[in-house]
Amino acid sequence: MLQKAYNKFGREAMGVELETWDEEEEDRLEHIKLLKARGKGTPKKKRTYEESKQYKARKRA
To answer: What is the Cα–Cα distance from 29 to 19, expressed in whole angstroms?
Structure first.
């Protein structure tokens, strides 16, 4: 929110670089990093027919 207000004035006018901290976004990124470290992240998208075919065989009727 502060970053948006700061951008209205322009960085050149202020003469300093302002950084803001988005705690919710940092928490989300940390959570994702922990999940990936444990191997619990989102699965990779299959790009070829052969890669996706192996998952179709697992379905039971």
So the answer is: 18
Question: What's the alpha-carbon Rg for the chain, to the nearest Å?
Answer: 22
Domain encompassing residue 12: 1-40
Model pLDDT, residue 38: 87
- Output phi, psi for 40, to 5 deg: -110, 15
> What pLDDT does 28 receive?
92
48: left (phi over 0), alpha (psi -120 to 50) or beta: beta
Does residue 46 lie within any of the structural domains? Answer: no
Average pLDDT per consecutive 10 residues, the chain (61 residues; last block may be shorter) = 63 66 91 87 72 62 52
Separation CA 43–CA 36 (nearest Å): 10
The single-letter code of the amino acid at 51 is E
